Amino acid sequence: MNRTYLTTEELSTRIKYDPRTIRQSLKDSVLLEGKHYIRPFGGRKILYIWEIIEQEMLEGFSSSFAIPLANGGISHG
Fold it and tell me: What distance in Å separates the CA atoms of residue 2 and residue 21, rounded to the nearest whole number?
C-alpha cells in the first residue's frame, strides 16, 4: 500500500490553504489523527496522508453522524 506523506507546508500547497489555517482550524476538527495524519515514532512532527485527504475532499463527508459547526468544522459524534 503506497501512501504519500506530506508536511503541513506541502499539504497547504496542494489544497491552497495557509499552513496556519491547517494547524489552527482544520487539524483535529476536520483532519483527524490516525485517519488523516500521523505522528511518526511518537514525535511532534505531523505527516498528512494525501490519498485519504484527497478522497474525502472529492467525495465530501457522507457520514450521517457528522454535525456541522458554526466555525466550518464538523463534530463526528
Answer: 27
Q: What is the DSSP letter of 46?
A: -
How far is the C-alpha of 76 from the C-alpha of 54, rounded, in Å?
19
SS3 of 76, please? coil
The grid coordinates listed for 64 are 450521517
Q: What does each of the 77 residues of the chain score in pLDDT, given as a tens digit?
A: 799 999 999 999 999 999 999 999 999 999 999 999 999 999 999 999 999 999 989 886 555 566 778 887 777 66
Cα separation, 77 vs 67, whole angstroms: 7
- The Cα diameter of the chain in Å comes to 37
Show the cell assigned to 4. Answer: 504519500
